[in-house]
Predict the structure.
Amino acid sequence: MTETDQPRELPRESADARNAPISRRVLLTGGAGAAAVGIAGLAAGIAVGAHEVPPAPPSGLSRQRFANKVVMITGATSGIGRAAAVAFAREGARVSFCGRREALGAEVERSIRGNGGTARYFRADVRLEAQLKEFADFTVAQFGRIDVALNNAGITLEKPLHEYTAAEWDDVLHTNLRGVFFAMKYQIPAMLAGNGGTIVVTSSSNAIATQGKRGAYAASKRALVALVQAAALEYGPHNIRVNAMLPGTTDTALVRRVAGMDNAPDAVWHAAAAEWAKSHVPGLGRMANPEEIAEFALVLASDETPFLTGAALVIDGGKTAQGG
């Protein structure tokens, strides 16, 4: 996946931006989207055509794959996490989800419940062990158990390796890697008590092929693959499957905001994103939408893949297929 960020510290007040899936923290290569095609040219009407991100997949049909199951999701107030919360609820799950932006969390919960689903929001920062324990305890208290977990929260910071401060390095690793460890530490006992479960971890295609200035991010995402493999071996005998998904660049509001185009007209944003993707996503030549990635998470978590564990599966539109 091509996730980049400004070469600066993330804003401290950004709340869930710090817990949002990394797949959503994308610049059009450091502003190169605007540099390559020009905002004026975009505004004049570059044709998006086949490279535009398609609408979300139809969600009207539900096979109730997760009927009566309890699903716990980190980083689910926007982007991929939010799309996953909606999708799991549509499929019959009772969803417990966290994030740091309370207004967004409440809005997601209202939306799911308004559409007949079951969801509960809990404010938690994945960097803080006590809050992850409280989140797991909250989930069990609300719904009695944990059947499925999607550990999705993450951040990024792009800069030359020697320019990282220790605090910046730690913040990325603590959020992306240690945060998943904390989540699993408290999800697994609940799954053991329930005689099994499924864990899906959001890594990144940067775990396979990355670029410069992504040292902390790529290290954290590759480490997640190793964590998933070790956990799969350790808990497979206890009927707990653990897998990683490695998303590519995904078109979300946060991507748009980090790219500095949150106030741009939709047509301008879509044109800029399409131009960027044509040269950066060989294969399909477009970004994903969050619903596509969320649906993949559901497949990994479902009973349809009972022999799948310890896997790291890429969904990136063909970006890493090119290699070199």
Notes: Residues 207 and 313 are 11 Å apart (CA to CA). DSSP finds eleven helices and seven strands in the chain. The two ends are 14 Å apart (CA to CA).
